[in-house]
Amino acid sequence: MSRYLVTGGAGFIGSHVVDGLVSASEEVRVVDDFSTGMRKNLTQHDAVEVIEADLVKPGVAISVVDDVDYVIHIAAIPSVPQSVKDPLTSHRANVEGTLLLLTAARDAGVKRVVFASSSSVYGDSPTLPKDEKMPTNPLSPYALQKLVGEHYMRLFHELYGLDTVVLRFFNVFGPRQNPSSEYSGVISLFTKALSEGQQPVIYGDGEQTRDFTYVSDVVDGLILACHRPDAVGQIINIARGGRTSLNRLFEVLRALVGVPSVAPLYGSSREGDIRNSQADVARANQLLGYNAQVTLEEGLRHTVEWYRSSR
User: Fold this and answer.
1) Terminus-to-terminus CA distance in the chain, angstroms?
2) What is the largest CA-CA distance in the chain?
3) Per-residue pLDDT, 159
4) Is residue 137 scored above 90 in pLDDT?
5) For 10, which of 43, 139, 260, 261 is 20 to 30 Å away at the CA?
6) Residue 7, helix vs strand vs coil
C-alpha cells in the first residue's frame, strides 16, 4: 500500500482519482481549498484524509507532502476564459502553487509527481492529430501557465532527480463536472441547458472540434503514470484520439436528453479558444499501456444520467 496526495482532490477530476485509488486499497490524502471543489464529492470515503488549504499559503505544500509516496497534481484554476479575465489570480494558482509543490516534493523525497497539463498548450496549429513533439503555442494565460508548469516538471527531473510525468488532457467530461459555472466544460453546460429545456450557447459556428475524453479514462492514465518506469520525464497526451464538432456533440446530447425541438444559440468566438483539437495517443499506449475504454456516446449517457439523479 502506498500513500498518494491528490491536489484538488475534491474537484471534478480529482474526486474521480480518489475513487480509483480507494478502490485499489491505497492510502489517500487530499488537499483542496474548496474554491471549486465540493465536500460531497468525497463523503463516501471515510478513510481519506482531507486537508482544506491553499497550496500557495506559506507552509502548506511542505505539510501536505509529508510521508507521501506519489503526488497527483490536479489543483488549478482550469479555465481559459477566467485566465483571460483575471490572469494574475490564475498565475498564482497554476504556476506558484505548482512550483511550491515541486520544491516540497523534492525536499520530502516523494517518489514521483504526476502533473495534469492541458492540450491548450498546443495552440491553434492546423496539424492534426497533435503529438507531443509538436511546437507549443499557448493562446491564453491558462495555456501559458500550464506550459510553465510542464517546464518546471522537466527541470525538477533534470536538475534534482525528482521523477516527474506530464499528462496533457483533452476536454475531459463526466459526472461531477459543475454545470453552474460559466467556465464549465461545454458538455456540462449543454447537459444542464437541455435538461432544463433551454437553448445552450455555442460560441462560433459550432464546427470547431474537440477530443472529448471520459473522466474514468483520465483516471486510468494518471494512476498508470505513477508507476510506469518509461514515463519518467515524459510528456504524454491522454485522450480518446478522436474528434467531434460541437454541432455534432449538441445533436447527440439533444437525443439523449430527449428534447428534439431545442436548437442552440450561436455567439461570437471566445478569446483564447482554439479551432480544432485531436490527440495522437501513440505515446500513451507505448509508455503507459493506456487505451481509452469509454466511447463518447457511452460517456455522454453516463453524464446525463448523473445530472438527472443529482438534481
Assistant:
1) 37
2) 59
3) 98
4) yes
5) 139
6) strand
**How many CA atoms does the CB half-sphere of 71 hold within 13 Å?**
34
Sole residue written with cell 509516496:
69
Residue 206 amino acid letter = G
Q: Which are the contacts of 16, defined by CB distance < 8 A and separation ≥ 6?
A: 174, 176, 215, 216, 218, 219
What does the block give as the cell for 91? 498565475
Query: Is residue 78 reached through a cis peptide bond, with omega within 30 degrees of 0 on the bond before it?
Result: no
Tens-digit pLDDT profile for residues 39-61: 999 999 999 999 999 999 999 99
User: Which residue has cell 509538436?
Assistant: 134
- Helix-helix angle 186-195:246-257, to 10 degrees: 40
In one letter, which amino acid is 48? V
Distance CA(208)–CA(243), nearest Å, equals 9
Statement: residue 182 has pLDDT above 60: no
Cell of 96: 506558484
Q: Within 13 A of 145's CA, how many CA atoms are on the CB side?
A: 27
CB atoms within 10 A of CB 262: 17
Q: Alpha carbon 306 to chain centroid distance?
A: 19
Q: 154: pLDDT confidence band, cut at 50, 70 and 90? A: very high
Domain borders along the chain are 3-173+212-241+281-289
Q: How high is the pLDDT of residue 181?
A: 60
Rounded to the nearest integer, the mean pLDDT of the chain is 95
- The percent of residues in the chain predicted with pLDDT above 90, rounded, is 91
Are 170 and 238 within 8 A, CB to CB? yes
- Is 307 assigned a catalytic role? no
CATH code, residues 3-173+212-241+281-289 = 3.40.50.720
- Of the residues 4, 70, 122, 142, which is catalytic? 142
